[in-house]
Amino acid sequence: MATIRKRGNSYQIRVSRGYDISGDQVIKNKTWTPEKGMTPKQIKKELNRQTVLFEEACNNGFQSKAIKFQEFAEEWFRQYAETKLKIQTVRCYHNCEKKVYKALDHLRMDKITTRTIQTFIVDLAGEKRYDSKGKELPPYAPKTVRNYISFISSIFDYAVKMQVLSGNPCKNVVLPSKKAKEREVYSLDEVQQMLELFEKETEANYKYTIFFTLAAFTGLRRGELLGLEWKDIDRENHLLSVVRTSEYTKEKGIYTDTPKTESGVRFIKLPPEVMQKPKAFQDWQNDYKAKIGTKWIECDRLFTKTDGSPMGMRQPYKFFERFCERTGMRFVNIHSFRHFNASILINNGVDVKTVQGCLGHSSATTTLNIYVHSFQEAQVRAMDSVASCILGKQGNIPK
């Protein structure tokens, strides 16, 4: 919206173009001076015309409400997503482009309504899918559908911030309900048995046994474990600092990033007997470095390839798969160690905020949503303990 200010014999026309990526307001100014001899009526008419023309010039392209969805989305990727969002998030959104553009590309940004997006979501959830051999695939999971909405909503949020639109039509979309899935979690007996078997592993597998030992005791994500560096270990205070993750994309290869959320930066307390294991492993690694000499690539990581460069994302998984085949242990996946750690915390009566902090979740709600069954079971046990205490002291409860 333009504002007009009279300054002597001229007029200043100001147009806001929203906000830039840094959050600063972008203002465009133009000064128009009436020609001599113009009547007040002529001046008013021409001033209005100049204002409209200047607004159109300022709103050319990106700022215009008439812009098509795909054109705006591509601008959003270049001007915001590529610089502000995590690489894996941008990659996920790029994977959503094809279907979203097919459904919305023909529409102007200001013509897309909540109903439009709701129809897209319903169609997506019910879409029949087939693999390369023509076999029918299951429908998209609610989580996948939510990723599509997250992509679309992020673009509209940016449009609102840039003052292209007054509201985000995604706000009132009804999302598919998440189906609570049964998580496969290792039992305490299984983990204890694994730790005993790790002690019998060969020297070549030393780094993997340390990796999975820390996974069980810390509940760290795979990327957080792979991102650990020797300077992150405070042996005196038995603390492990989580300040980075190791990630991988086909385009960039292995790269270092910050933790998934702001809460992901945290300290984990380890018992002294567990803290001794990384120390022994570092001594072994130093001996190994001395043996191969200049072939070693220094990166300060705990978990490396044989040449010292950061370990790949799939290496721990491949070891663990072979380990379970050799030993007869039940194979789940690496993330199951994180669920095991969380279940131990919850079963021992640790409150949700503390569990959230230990796991590095963005909010307590996230923790509750993921481990709702574990908290419910813990609550039942807590009430049982109250009943047991009362019954133990007073005998039977009177009718």
CATH class of the largest domain: Mainly Alpha
In percent terms, what proportion of residues is strand? 5-15%
Structural class: alpha+beta
Order of helices and strands: EEEHHHHEEHHHHEEEEEHHHHHH
CATH architecture of the largest domain: Orthogonal Bundle
* Neighbour order of strands in the largest sheet: 1-2-3
* Mean of pLDDT: 88
DSSP, total strands: 10
Head-to-tail CA distance between termini: 74 Å
Largest sheet: 3 strands, antiparallel
Shape: elongated
Helix count, per DSSP? 14
Number of domains: 3
Would you write up a description of this structure?
By secondary structure, the chain is an alpha+beta fold. The protein has 3 domains: 2-59, no CATH class; 69-172, DNA polymerase, domain 1, CATH 1.10.150.130; 188-333, Orthogonal Bundle (hpI Integrase, Chain A), CATH 1.10.443. It has 14 helices and 10 strands. The protein is elongated and about 100 Å long. The N and C termini lie far apart (74 Å).
Please give a handful of descriptors for the protein shown.
399 residues, alpha+beta, DNA polymerase, domain 1, hpI Integrase, Chain A, 3 domains, 3-stranded antiparallel beta sheet, 14 helices, 50% helix, disordered C terminus
